[in-house]
Design a protein that fits this description.
Blueprint (H helix, E strand, L loop, with lengths): L6 H7 L4 H12 L8 H17 L4 E7 L3 E8 L4 E7 L18 E3 L7 E3 L6 H17 L6 E8 L7 H7 L13 E11 L3 E2 L3 E4 L1 E10 L3 E2 L9 H19 L6 E9 L6 E2 L2 E10 L2 H21 L7 E8 L2 E3 L1 H15 L3 E2 L13 H4 L5 E9 L1 H10 L20 H17 L5
Parallel strand pairs: 3-6, 3-7, 7-18, 8-17
Antiparallel strand pairs: 1-2, 2-6, 4-5, 8-18, 9-16, 10-14, 10-15, 11-13, 12-14
Helix pairs in contact: 2-4, 3-4, 4-11, 6-7, 8-11
Organism: Knufia fluminis
Protein name: Peptidase M20 dimerisation domain-containing protein
Keywords: Hydrolase, Manganese, Metal-binding
Length: about 425
Amino acid sequence: MSDSPFTSVISQHLPDLTPYESLYKHFHRNPEISTLETETNARILSELQTLNSAHNSPIEIKSPIGTTGLIGIHRNGDGPTILLRADIDGLPILEKTGLEYASTKRMMDTHLDNIEKPTMHACGHDFHITCMLAAIETLLNCAEAWSGTLIYLFQPAEERGAGARMMLDDGLYTTHGCPKPDLCLGQHVFPFKAGNVYTRSGPTMSAADSYRITIYGKGGHGSMPHRCIDPVVIASHIVVRLQTLVSREVPPDETAVVTVGSLKAGDTVNVIADEAVIQVNIRSVSEYWRKVLLDGLKRIVNAECEAGRATKPATFHKLNEFPLCDNDEDVTRRVQEGFTAYFGERHDPSMQPVLGSEDFPWLGSEIGKPYCFWFFGGVDGEEYERHVREGTTNEIASNHSPFFAPCLQPTLRTGVEGMVVGALTFVGKERK
């Protein structure tokens, strides 16, 4: 870290993180499902107002945007405008971590299906919120060391691929007066070694497209299949044939995934259903092969329905869509230079693409601006190294697991430092 112009700035101005550890535990205990993050929004708003009170109100707060999103606009002299983003929603998962601050919360998913669901921060968004707030305090403390405008954006509904679009459609850059940034920065905790940061230029997270597909048959008695058209058989052929998209149509050196997450039909054993429903998730890391996969999905479904004498064409309902996260080369190079100078060997600038997906890119791409998205580790260092030695890293609980439990430190500190270094790389007075 000795070569970084930001080392002394951060060492002098990073706040005591003990209160933020408590704040993180609060967010972890109180997750909220996508689009319903009202209490989370209120707590973030309260924390921003407290920071404003302590620093003569320099941050202009706008809330709500896109249901439960909010932003803080921090103007601090002339310079570039940089957007920093943190997502805030939890997942409908029953937590099984055993942590003393584990979530036991349940909530009605009134936006989706009116079903009560267990709720958990199983993807680390509680870390993202807390790291952002601590980074904001750091940037307030060191305001003399930078010049420009920072936008602190807290985004809802990332898990449904909807939140960024909701904020944009609600007039983020128009009605709500958010300055259009010169570039956007974001980060994500991941089951890598805690204390480390990971970057990559180019395709970094996959595009994802999810569909619910209904296949139509002709129902009847299980003893008389000749009088029926069985949609389960048609759907089963579709499930098997879809596996050939990756194995036989996408080159071996390309990365793609086709997953059938569910196949549902009927309610009892001796009745042939008249409909079958499959849900398909497709992930890709290039726009060309994304199109090949999506075209192949429709071709296979339609062909198998015809072969199975389906009573009418299948219907396709798009569940969600995530863009390809394609980090800008120049922006990423500058972030990497800042990270290498500050973190040293704890920065890996050549991570492999991640097949998870994010809607973060839309915040920049929709207005023609570049972005960079990076990762920071959340697995205790000794535990991680043991799994590496034993070849058992696949046993580490991943994001969306009911056992996902990043270690509190140095995860929190690294996430704060990463966000601050990322921002100062572009607005710091020591920037190149």
